[in-house]
Amino acid sequence: MNPRHSRIRGLHALGLILILTAACASQGQPTLGETAPTPTQTVTPSPTQPPQPGPTSAEAPTAAAATVAPPPGEPIFTVAVLVDTRAVQASREQAQAVINEAGLHLRALVPVIMVMTDFVEDGNGGATTEMLQRYMIAHATALPNGVVIFSFGEEGRAKLNGGYGYTAPAPSGYRNTFVSPLVGSSHIYVAVVDYSFRYMACGYGGSDTVKSASALGGECGNHPGMACVQQNGYSMCANAIGHLYMSTPTYFLSSTIVHGLLQPFAAGGAQDDYDTPECTARMGYPAGFHDLQESQYHNDLCPFVYDEFLKSYQP
To answer: Where do runs of H (alpha helix) occur along 108-176?
Structure first.
């Protein structure tokens, strides 16, 4: 394992203990478009050995619904949550719990704290970019680093795949303290996620109700006939049991948030996701290397992206 990642994981374990201790001690809550950019720089690879396995599903952390007080001196990545009430129903408490869980995933990999600073329900319609613009106009003097939008997304994209991310130019005068190598400090990072998305759903056949006790066409990795099991309150593919993404009801959702918000810190964009030839080459893994648990532990981002994210912090 890369000594850099070994050292970071040790620090992160201590950080998680501090976070959970603070959550028990304090129940207080703080108050408070868009193009796919072209990569602008190339980073020289730093080969490493294949990583040691990340935590198993039994070791997945549990996020409390209360806001977590960050340790003093830690970089803080602030997010606002917008709920598209035409499509999704999620309360402030549910949003807070998911952001806390996303923060645990992030903190396990890099010493940055994720904090929800605002929660807004929007029923005015339009695309997520329009919802974002309305929010930025109304909160121009106190914008966060990132925005999470609970919505089905443009053309149902989040409803189909769970979620995605993009960046959007902020109003004049805004400066993001996390500076993307692709878009600089003038943009806000956005993750669009379907709060009701079911990871590895089984027997639904594209509907909202169960139609079969076994997988239908396209489900379970396109294994029709695969047995369905009851897990996390819905019918799930039996071959998903043991995945880190199913270890809590909202693990996949919170992991998708981290992925969407941090992808702009990968110079190669989607080519710097975990299971890509580019990531394999960059990390020095053997050809054909694949570790599902490690991929999910890293929120499907190549491990080096977290180093780039940490280096991007410019308070």
So the answer is: 128-138, 157-161
Residues in a beta bridge with 78: 115
36: region left, alpha or beta (phi > 0 left; psi from -120 to 50 alpha): beta
The candidate with the shortest Cα–Cα distance to 204, out of 194, 196, 215, is 215
pLDDT in tens, 137-157: 999 999 999 999 999 999 999
Query: Residue 213 is encoded by which pair of tokens?
Result: 């006790």
Q: Which residues contact 315 (CB under 8 A, 6 or more apart)?
A: 75, 177
In the three-class reduction of DSSP (H, G, I as helix; E, B as strand; rest coil), residue 254 is classed as: helix
One-letter identity of residue 148? V
With beta carbons less than 8 A apart as the criterion, state whether 219 and 203 touch.
yes
Which contiguous run of DSSP H or E holds residue 3? helix 3-25
Q: Looking at the domain that runs over 1-25+74-199+244-315, which CATH code has it been given?
A: 3.40.390
Radius of gyration (C-alpha) of the chain in whole angstroms: 19
**103 close to 257: Cβ distance less than 8 angstroms:** no
The span from the CA of 131 to the CA of 201, in Å, is: 29
Give, in order, the Cα–Cα distances in Å from 39 to each of 43, 48, 55, 111, 183: 11, 23, 32, 25, 9
Q: How far apart are CA 251 and CA 199, in angstroms?
A: 9
Can you tell me the distance from the alpha carbon of 116 to that of 125, in angstroms, rounded to the nearest whole number? 23
Give residue limits of the domains in the chain. Answer: 1-25+74-199+244-315, 200-242
Give the pLDDT confidence of 156-201 residue by residue, as tens digits: 999 999 999 999 999 999 999 999 999 999 999 999 999 999 999 9
Q: Which two tokens stand for residue 37?
A: 């950019």
Token pair in block for residue 121: 């329900």
